[in-house]
């Protein structure tokens, strides 16, 4: 059953309780070659998208027609809304397929609607939105553009990174995926600039003027339309070159985030940051032959399963650690929430245990959990882009560390969580530490130095996103 038939069947149930208003922006005197139907974000009136629509039509040299809805429909109302918008497009001279675009949470609606059989939709355009987890770019039935700004405070750049990394995997298998399902992050642009609406709660301050933002948005959107429609009368090579450059720009912009994310989220299931923490706890001042081994444990693993004592293999010392990575529960895949771990529960080997196995080495004082967490900030700042460092310094929202809380038992430590306190003064971090140097007969607990660690990726989210929001005294209740 096609979409227009579905709409006809739905009208009887919906017309009494839902009246959709659509608005058209078009050229006059020429038949449009491309058409876009635009769904607004839920809390933004459709009228806020008129300037974007006008800019897109003007910069297309009048080859584009845009119809935008006044309000965001529900998924049940969507067939009627789409049919009405489509009829506007047809009445104004466009006889081909249309691109269905949406902003913010409207993107989930557009993406869901795009999976229905339709001979009217050419492709999907997600402004500051993304396919939710469980849907994949390479299996989506239509060409789909994901495009947002790196100063988007509602659709975090760290959420778009997940989608871009998916695309990188697809491109490795098929380079044309960067044209069929491009993922573009534009530097200096925020969430509100798609809707000409300033002061959106949680959004970050843009560094690009509204006029320039429209130009950049048009550049990639129009290139996607040309490349997708594949009209031999159009310069498809030039359109693909724009998307290719967008891919490269995005790859460069996201590379620091991707590198730091991989410290704890990787196919090897190894927390490389915990290995660094273990080295800081051992703090050997002389070279020793040692292998540091880590694995990420299941959250339900027992202590006996989690930790192994250090031991020698021939001349090499093998030091074990385990890490449980914890995240904020986010079943709805909300991009406004942090995408980084809330903490790393790191079970590590104490310095005293290592001293017993290597008598010839010298050691400094073992690092505290607070020391290790401070080192995470230093490390991540050094990995951040020059632009991110500049923004962070201007925000004047530092990370401040509280003294470690010392747990008296492992169970007490295991029940503790890393304190993350967000306010307009910055981010305050407090760790819990458990130390024991007495091996137990059952080998389950002993000679350990355990920490609730700050994830380097959480630090990077603070530098790239949250410090900029808190520095501007934005509402904070969506952070956890």
From TrEMBL:
Residues 36-170 form the Alpha/beta hydrolase fold-5 domain. InterPro entries: AB_hydrolase_5, AB_hydrolase_fold. It comes from the Eukaryota. Keywords: Signal. Gene3D superfamilies: alpha/beta hydrolase. Residues 1-19 form the signal peptide. GO terms for molecular function: hydrolase activity. This is Alpha/beta hydrolase fold-5 domain-containing protein.
